[in-house]
Amino acid sequence: MYTPCVAKKRKTSPTSKARPLIARPGARFTCFSDGLCCSDIHALGPMTRSEVKHVRSLIPDAVSYNDEVEGHCMRPDEYGRCAQLQDGLCGIHARFGPEHKPGGCRRFPYGLVRTPEGGRVTTEHRCPCRTMGERPELDLADAERSLYDGAGRLESDQEVPVRIALTVERRVAFASYRKLEEELLARLAAGEKAESVLGAEPMPDLHEGAWVLHAAEFLDMRDGTAGGVAMAFFGDAVLALADGHRPPKRPRPWADAFDTACARSKKPGSPEAMFNDWLADEIWMFRWLEWGCPFDVARAELATRLAAARWLMRRFEKSGLRADQAAAEAIMIAELAACTNQWPETVDAIANDPSPASDLERRPV
Ligand code: SF4
Fold this sequence. Notes:
Order of helices and strands: EHEEEEHHEEHHEEEHHHHHHHHH
Number of domains: 2
Bound molecules: iron/sulfur cluster
Oligomer: single chain
């Protein structure tokens, strides 16, 4: 069963702050209404109780209960898209204004991470508007409007601690970590091969279970939704990398959104630049802190998802997709995998002694 992680409410600490808002240099995004975010690839929820009440007050049948998510979501149409989506645009936004949309819709693909320097504006890459075509630099004013909660406060997704674990044995102050991170981001931006920047092998040793068993968990997520199919593709990739498995043919229920993006992107993008841009944001957003792992394990899990994404890209290219579209769909899947309840368990199974990554962190900082 495909169940995306539900964002938890976080306490704020005096050492981190939401302002000033900071964009990652080089991050580009604008919404082209490709329509992917309003499909069951994102489960259309879950929504809070007050969001359910509010949306129902506007459109009584717009919300339905989703057994898989165990919560209320926007009601999907027969193709798994939100029933309020009209010609690629949100019907609630058009009729009532953006502030009336559920919080998850308002935010996507933005996020906010509180750090000692200010609030990092993050972007998810499981969206062709984020990954494909000519895009302007990220607009902080647009992001800020999306990041307010119902009470008009900036709502954060993640909080950076005072000291950051580079390995299980070593923690450093945020400022020291920041220097290491800055170097990694600069190398990615300069076009260095992502594998060499991460300095970690994919599919490292596990202290528990085997990669084929973790792959099986993703294959089991098929539940008739687009998200479930995406996770079956991810399971195929991990299984193929682990033991050479030959996957069956699968539909791509998200194809429309990416075909639209491909058609508007006259100049094909560079897959290598897309992978580097995605990984830079994965690092920038500190997704790994949520899993409680040190940075060396995080680099190993990123190397694993990158290997899966490259395998998926080759698979999509063989089926005739343009290289940048193949990369964008592969990135969507590899990112979505990290948003399931399964991936934290997989990350937890990565053995951390000896370290699964290079000794980047052991240099004096
Ligand atoms: S409410 Fe609007 S933004 Fe949210 S999923 Fe439906 S159409 Fe998309």
